[in-house]
């Protein structure tokens, strides 16, 4: 759950990017002080989300499975499955081994990761590359759907 400082959809986007920056820096996704600092820098325009996106794009390893690290039998996986009418573009694709691709099946990334590593693993253990790609490409869509579903329950002030 994001902290109380996250009040808008834009803030939520910045919060997620701050977590990606923290993970990329080797500090993990639980270093709240660092994450909050980056969150504020994003809010104030001192750093920009597209810089993070380009960093993630440059760091993608095309020679190993992003889920398990294997370097053999690699194939392309769609983070959001094509059978769910998700896009066929580079933002939705990663390199994974055939075994991971097969076990992921038609699940979305977080569904797969929760099945593989439990809820805690899905919250903090998803590979940064996959999480960054999903966030850049699809998280806004998911948040909008969630917002529409929750709208009847939200107190409008």
Cross-sheet strand order for the largest sheet = 1-2
- The secondary-structure element order is HHHEEHHH
Q: Structural class given helices, strands, pairing? A: mainly alpha
Report the β-strand fraction as a percent range. 5-15%
What coarse outline follows from CA principal-axis ratios? globular
**Count of runs of 4 or more consecutive helical residues:** 6
Radius of gyration: 16 Å
Report how far apart the termini are. 22 Å
Instruction: Give the strand tally.
Output: 2
Helicity, in percent?
40-55%
Q: Detail the poorly predicted runs.
A: none
What is the average of the pLDDT values? 77
Largest sheet: 2 strands, antiparallel
Detail the topology: elements first, then pairings.
Elements: H1 9-24, H2 32-44, H3 49-59, E1 74-78, E2 93-97, H4 98-104, H5 109-124, H6 128-150
Antiparallel strand pairs: 1-2
Helix pairs in contact: 1-2, 1-6, 3-6
Description:
The chain is mainly α. It contains 6 helices and 2 strands. The chain has a two-stranded antiparallel ribbon. Helix 3 crosses helix 6. The longest helix is centred in the last third of the chain and has 23 residues. The radius of gyration is 16 Å and the shape is globular. The protein starts with 8 loop residues before the first helix and ends in a 7-residue tail after the last helix.
Key structural traits:
157 residues, 6 helices, globular, 2 strands, mainly alpha
Short recap of the structure:
With 157 residues, the chain is mainly alpha-helical. The protein has helices at 9-24, 32-44, 49-59, 98-104, 109-124, 128-150, and strands at residues 74-78, 93-97.
């Amino acid at each position: 759950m994001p902290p109380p400082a996250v009040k808008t959809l834009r803030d939520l986007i910045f919060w997620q990017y701050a977590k990606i920056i923290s993970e990329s820096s080797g500090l993990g996704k639980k270093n709240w002080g660092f994450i909050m600092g980056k969150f504020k820098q994003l809010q104030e325009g001192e750093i920009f989300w597209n810089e993070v996106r380009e960093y993630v794009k440059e760091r993608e390893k095309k020679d190993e499975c992003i889920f398990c690290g294997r370097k053999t039998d690699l194939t392309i996986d769609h983070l959001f499955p094509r059978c769910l009418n998700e896009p066929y573009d580079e933002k939705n694709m990663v390199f994974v081994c055939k075994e991971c691709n097969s076990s992921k099946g038609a699940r979305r990334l977080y569904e797969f990761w929760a099945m593989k590593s439990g809820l805690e693993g899905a919250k903090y253990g998803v590979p940064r590359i996959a999480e960054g790609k999903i966030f850049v490409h699809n998280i806004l869509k998911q948040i909008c759907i969630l917002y529409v579903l929750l709208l009847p329950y939200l107190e409008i002030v």
